[in-house]
Amino acid sequence: MSQLFPELYTKGSKIWIKHSTDVWQCAVIKVNFSQKDKSLVVEDEEEQEITLPVKDLSCLPPLRNPDILIGANDLTSLSYLHEPAVLYNLRVRFLEQSAIYTWCGIVLVAINPFCDLEIYGEETIQTYHKSQGAAQLDPHIYAVSEDAYSKLERDDRNQSIIVSGESGAGKTVSAKFAMRYFASIAGTDSSNIENRVLASNPIMEAIGNAKTNRNDNSSRFGKYIQILFDRQSRAITGGNMRTYLLEKSRVSRQSEGERNFHIFYQMCTYAQQNNLKHLKLDSNTEFAYLASIEPTPYDDMDRFIEAMQCLGFTEKQQNLIYNVVAAILHAGNIEFTRIDDEKCCLSDDSEPHLQTFCSLLGLDSSATKQWLTHRLLKTGMRELITTTLTAELAQYGRDALLKFIYETMFSWIVALINKALGPTNTSVTYPFIGVLDIYGFEHFETNSFEQFCINYANEVLQQQFNQHVFKLEQEEYVREGIDWQFITFTDNQPVIDIIEAKPIGILCLLDEECKMPKDNQPVIDIIEAKPIGILCLLDEECKMPKGTDETWGAKLYSQITLGEVFQKPKFGSRNSFIIQHFADTVVYNVEGFLEKNRDTIWDEQIDLLKRSTVVDVLFSDGLSGEPTQKSGGKIKITPQQQSQKQQKQAKATVGSQFRDSLAALMKTLNATEPHYVRCIKPNDNKGGFEFNNIRAVQQLRACGVLETIR
Ligand SMILES: Nc1ncnc2c1ncn2[C@@H]1O[C@H](COP(=O)(O)OP(=O)(O)OP(=O)(O)O)[C@@H](O)[C@H]1O
Ligand SMILES: [Mg+2]
């Protein structure tokens, strides 16, 4: 820390002072500083003299690096390493050298240039691949990829490239370049496997990406793709993908200025161009689920179709996707007319849409009509009665059904991709490089269940990062023969506990009790130290027949101790709670948490789908209805296991499924050697080579890069 050397604060030396719009501004010291001084006189860039109070030496402002060091391609080579130094160095490299990549120790910082650069060609790939020790080369996503590839061989250890950053920062683009790198250097002459791995991208983008206010091609799901290599030849031999938390609510509702998933628009254009009359997607029909039909660069279906063909999707499978997509659009146009306070019926205009929906999905139209407007209610142990639905409930049920169909199709497509990428020899375990492209920390004006899950995932990833950096430092101490030192890093375990702690079971408590025959204080400590977490309280409330978002909110306050991590807003409603995340403080609104966690879909409607001879395949291919996929195509499931699995799944809430899939991801990541890419979005207007200091600092603070260099 520069502040520890007060003798460096001499007349003419440059320092950094806080600035309202630039975050940090350069200033020059006017008078030599001596230890007993209580202030420092400096002159800012506007030639204004400022006297900075210096209560103690820790209040001295950060020193600026000598000009000769500025623009270094590894931040750790700077003499002074602090927030203003990092920010300024990144800015200079970006604006003056058009250098978007910078090393920050083991992390590659990637700033989105928002324009195409000539730095990704085949020649560049070969330069990185032929280099000895990519770390010495200029920072680049290819340098990270090469490092992972060479370590896979050298250390005989699986590798992961963890890409993070906020929406529009360039995660998916980075992940695709990494995949392209591997396809290029480890492709095969005979099989087409590397192209199949790449073909997964346009498919996933069509069904999982959408235009949002922050990114025209925003991934609305998280993805971890493993590229498998042959142990001997190191050529790509297969792939496997897991996805996380698809934002299916987008199917039925989009925020102002946003769109539905690209596939819906692609399908309309394609059907019109190719005269697919049976889909009834002519340009005269307006679809309620399509927010904006203004053309965008993402409306062309050619790459999607090419990719499906490359992956060997059969014509029947392709047609099923077309049918499902079109059917969802038609069913979204089914409206309900109120008959009285308890009953509704389909509006007259809805009839043709209902017919198309049913014919495309092979459903019985009178049964469909029945279960769109009625429900079965349990009255006794075994008794069921049919009850009518209000127009509002019917609409809710329709949306839930269509979101479910879409999500099921999404999972089924992921399973098909995994089948197509699966290596021919399934009895061998192959070394792999995994690429994680997962949503970064989110903080909006209103934060709901989705932001809660996303930020929880980021806490867990941040902890993984901290632990890795900590481990590396320890190893270095041992290597250099330095006495073991304790390096402090912000431990975010308390935040993770408050989110995910499970109640301790009776058996576990009993075990503890048996170990401690005399004194039960340790048991009490355990109970008190780890109160039940937010997700478990949410699950419990979802099981309560009368549970509401508000009753859950009240329970949070009665069961979770207020403190640094979990806080109550000073003003405003009881309907919100605050979590101090490692990246920022976020206020969550409880509204909608229960419903989003329950994610109810009525059994009668599911039965309807299962009776169809068209969409039954979506359910029978093993992995449907499951937001996250296990390794696809490898496990055979018997019908009995299938139904047990589905019954079990029916009970699992979205939150608990997410927690489990995150735990599985961490287990995988922890068994690999990680490589970190932090993407930064330098401005909000997608301006080419525009750098906004405030936005950049926000993200640097949130991605944990600054923490590791303190
Ligand atoms: N390396 C790059 N070179 C040129 N343009 C880029 C680069 N990285 C990102 N972009 C531009 O930024 C846009 C957004 O990038 P990308 O879709 O990868 O963001 P993301 O981090 O995946 O966002 P989200 O979380 O919303 O999915 C791209 O469509 C592209 O226009
Ligand atoms: Mg993305």
Automatic annotation (TrEMBL):
Belongs to the TRAFAC class myosin-kinesin ATPase superfamily. Myosin family. Pfam families: Myosin_head. The keyword Ribosomal protein does not apply. Residues 70-710 form the Myosin motor domain. The lineage of its organism: Eukaryota, Metazoa, Ecdysozoa, Arthropoda, Chelicerata. GO terms for cellular component: cytoplasm; membrane; myosin complex. ATP binds at G165, E166, S167, G168, A169, G170, K171, T172. One of its GO terms (biological process) is actin filament organization. It comes from the Eukaryota. This is Myosin motor domain-containing protein. Residues 662-684 are annotated as: Actin-binding. Residues 625-647 are annotated as: Disordered. One of its GO terms (molecular function) is ATP binding. SUPFAM superfamilies: Myosin S1 fragment, N-terminal domain, P-loop containing nucleoside triphosphate hydrolases. It comes from Medioppia subpectinata. Keywords: Actin-binding, ATP-binding, Motor protein, Myosin, Nucleotide-binding.
